[in-house]
Write a structure and sequence with these properties.
The chain has helices at 2-6, 33-42, 63-67, 73-76, 102-112, 169-178, 194-201, 215-227, 241-249, 268-274, 294-307; strands spanning 17-18, 23-24, 84-86, 89-92, 118-122, 135-140, 145-150, 153-158, 184-187, 207-212, 234-238, 255-258, 280-289, 312-325, 328-337. The strands form four sheets. A seven-stranded mixed sheet has the order 11-10-9-12-13-15-14, with helices on both faces. The protein has a four-stranded mixed sheet with strand order 3-4-5-6. A two-stranded antiparallel sheet has the order 1-2. 28% of the residues lie in helices and 26% in strands. It is α/β, with parallel strands linked by helices and 338 residues long.
């Protein structure tokens, strides 16, 4: 979808659609041969087909309209375009030129999004062992804890204490849909539980070991297990994934989830140890940039698996998930390990 947008092919008057397997993007025209080649370089199984799309819902007053008397036309072009909504909290990234206008913009966000009660500005990159980011409250209530809802599940989360990305909601659902009844799943970097609980919510007979090194995340995970009535299915485990698997989860898993894109490659051996001797599935997340490729990602992953003494039987899927920075994306690779 990122490349489609840059090629100016998206029909913005129609709604993007998705199901458990595909994302359907309405186009303004049939791509040329060159445009299609550009798309298929980065998007595996990209196809052009006929699909029915509803019209895009017309939005109310825009952020720019609210601020047109406060900001110059030049500054209006710098307004945050991608705002994340976690429960009733809005999170925006402000460029330096808007530093003096954060409060005004935050109040405008509140005005144009009636369900939002707090607006946060990103004040640093995600980092550290616990994958945390610093935020500044720019408008609304001084609160960083909320309840986020997606696909029938609810999650207690404090965005200053535990990593959570609403942009991964489709991935949570997609992975959960792959799980079969009776499986044992190890979620190595579970956070507050969006993968684990979605799996439990959609299956009667499943066991999920949800592991995280961040004690605050595990406490919210426990709350979310109770909130979503996932007791007996999701088992929270606090500790370093490597040590936890070595001590408790060696050879138990039919499926392993590795949503730690900045460091997951260093834990491939841990995932391979957790997988049953008979084999299983791994959902591996990583970052790729402009100079990288999905083919390189597959090669790095396969090499890491072989170093652990296992083998990649089949790459089931590899695709871009979301843009995380200019010319950088989060990617997912699903593989069958034997």
């Amino acid at each position: 979808m990122i490349l489609t947008s840059k090629l100016a092919l998206i029909n913005k008057d129609l709604e993007i659609q998705r199901d458990e397997e595909f994302i359907y993007i309405p186009l303004t025209k049939r791509p040329s041969k060159k445009e299609l080649e550009t798309l298929t370089e980065q998007i595996v199984d990209c196809k052009v087909s006929v699909h029915s799309f509803p019209e895009r819902k017309k939005l109310g007053t825009s952020l720019a309209q609210v601020l047109e008397d406060r900001l110059s036309p030049q500054l209006l072009t710098s307004l945050p375009r991608a705002i994340d909504f976690v429960g009733d909290i809005a999170i925006a990234e402000f460029p330096p030129e808007l530093g003096a206008y954060k409060t005004a913009i935050g109040e405008a966000i509140l005005k144009t999004n009636k369900k939002v009660r707090t607006v946060l500005a990103k004040a640093g990159a995600v980092g550290g062992t616990y994958r945390l980011r610093k935020f500044a409250i720019v408008a609304g209530e001084p609160e960083t804890e909320t309840i986020h809802k997606e696909y029938g599940c609810q999650y207690h989360v404090d965005v200053t204490k535990a990593f959570f990305s609403p942009r991964l909601s489709f991935e949570h659902r997609r992975v959960a849909s792959q799980v079969e009844e009776g499986e044992i799943v190890v979620d190595l970097f579970a956070g507050v539980g969006p993968f684990s609980i979605q799996i439990a919510k959609n299956h009667q007979h499943v066991t999920v070991y949800a592991v995280d090194v961040n004690p605050d995340a595990v406490e919210y995970l426990k709350k979310n297990i109770r909130l979503n009535r996932a007791m007996g299915k999701v088992h929270p485990v606090s500790g370093d994934a490597r040590q936890v698997v070595k001590d408790k989860l060696s050879g138990v898993a039919d499926r392993v989830i590795m949503n730690l894109p900045e460091k997951a490659i260093d834990f491939v051996d841990v995932a391979c140890e957790a997988i049953k001797p008979s084999g299983g599935t791994v959902h591996f997340y990583s970052f790729v940039n402009k100079s990288d490729s999905l083919e390189n990602l597959k090669a790095r992953f396969s090499e890491a698996v072989e170093k652990s003494g296992r083998r990649v039987e089949k790459i089931l899927l590899v695709r871009l998930v979301r843009e995380t920075a200019p010319y950088e994306w989060q990617a997912v690779l699903d593989a069958r390990i034997c």
